[in-house]
Amino acid sequence: MAARLNPLGTDVGPKLVRHLVATGRAVTDSSLPRATQELVKIRASQINGCGGCLDMHTKEAAHAGETPVRLNLVAAWRDATVFTDAERAALELTEQGTRLADAGDVTDEVWEKAAEHYDEEQLTALVAQIALINAFNRLNVILRQPGGDYEPGRFHA
């Protein structure tokens, strides 16, 4: 599969990516657990069918010490015993926040579960993470950016 366009080869692409990455740094630097951040990126990318983001975030999570069992079970998190209640709440919020067109809203029940586990700073970071990964997913899916050749740390320099 070949990408439709290399956005980094345009004038606007690098600027756009630089601003999105800078925004993401606020999440990265927050108190939201890093494992939760990566799980959210992976789950949203699975839902959106973003091979490029799945490639990047599964490899980054593994490189940071995430276990293969947990990475392999993200898609079936409801039926897996390896996620904490807090992670489950974040994954449910991610699913509803990613599928807004299907349901039209994030339910109060899902929000309240997340609020049981995360303070306001962490909830803000969690919502921002969901929004940002969905933006990256949409860019990559529309442009057909393939997955498979990502090297951990490539964009962290």
TrEMBL record:
Superkingdom per UniProt: Bacteria
Cross-referenced InterPro entries: AhpD-like, AhpD_core, CMD-like
Keyword Metal-binding: no
GO molecular function: peroxiredoxin activity
Record has Oxidoreductase as a keyword: yes
Domain Carboxymuconolactone decarboxylase-like: 14-95
Keywords: Oxidoreductase, Peroxidase
PANTHER family for the chain: 4-CARBOXYMUCONOLACTONE DECARBOXYLASE FAMILY PROTEIN (AFU_ORTHOLOGUE AFUA_6G11590), BLL7811 PROTEIN
Protein name: Alkylhydroperoxidase
